Protein NinG (Lelliottia aquatilis), 201 residues
Amino acid sequence: MAKKPRRKCASQSCREWFHPIRDGQVVCCYECATAVAKEQTAKNRAEVMRTEKKRQREEEKTRRHRQAERRQAVKPLNYFIRQAQQAFNDFIRYRDRHLPCISCDRHHEGQYHAGHFRTTGANPELRFNEDNCHKQCSACNNHLSGNLINYRPALIQKIGQARFDALMGPHDLPKWKRDDYIQIRDEYRAKLKELKKQVAA
Ligand SMILES: [Zn+2]
Ligand SMILES: [Zn+2]
């Protein structure tokens, strides 16, 4: 019988050349066969551990996702009011970006706010009324409590007497809930985006 071609022992710790005697013989000796069996077991164990780790990672991901959802669900209403107000104010500031401060008529470097004519504290129903909110410098908004004496004539000039009267008239207080604030937030984010797109075009 022809001698079988030599091959390398499959044991990682051996790797010696040997001449197989039997078909399918991959190790040079009994010790190496044991070693290979052990290596195989270790490999299988590593594979099992890899799979298990992957499963744990996915489980952790799902858990974190659910936790984030739950955190969102228990967020106080105030959080959503702030988010909606932020989106609304961003829109107002951008809408009036070329205009001076509504109260002092100044253009200046520095921060601008979205200043409500009728305050959100006393008139929460006018919180998201676009006639009620205009670009205002921080000095007027923060230090002069809105500088309303000068805000008023400028506002009448800007929106007209009829709209001003409507603004001053009675308004229902909508029973806004969490989802309403989320909707208002998304609406104003979209409006701002649309406005920016128009400007860019
Ligand atoms: Zn060997
Ligand atoms: Zn001002």
Residues 1-74 form one domain. Residues 9, 11, 14, 16, 27-29, 32 surround zinc ion (ligand 1) (CB under 6 Å).
